[in-house]
Amino acid sequence: MASASRVALDSSMLLTISEFKVDVFEEAKKLLGRVDFVVPSKVKEEIERIAGRGLKERKSVKVAEQAMRQHNVQVVEAEGKNADEALLSLSANAVIATNDRELKRKILEKNGKVMFLRKRQFIELSS
């Protein structure tokens, strides 16, 4: 049996679930087959801060957290002083799911793989 692909999620992708009604988890499974989802602790901290910004953000974070529980997303420790650095450190061994253009560019420069939202409705993989 083939091993699962590892996908590390950024806050921008997690918040896509509520904002654009895209099931990031199911789309990733369609692209990659069996998937183990992870979120760096720095990303978890970031979405907790975002929840404090207002009602809309709090609702988006609540939807993201519910989806994370439903898909057994593991919170992992990763090197880096912020969320982007933590995701970059994971990019050697995981597909990074992000909508952050700058982070995407940095990951691709390191020959990593990025999963991102295209046209507000499709998840695409690039490497």
Automatic annotation (TrEMBL):
InterPro entries: PIN-like_dom_sf (IPR029060), PIN_9 (IPR041120)
Superkingdom of origin: Archaea
Domain VapC9 PIN-like: 7-120
Entry's transmembrane regions: none
CDD domains: PIN_VapC_AF0591-like (cd09879)
Name of the protein described by the UniProt record: VapC9 PIN-like domain-containing protein
Species the sequence originates in: Candidatus Iainarchaeum sp
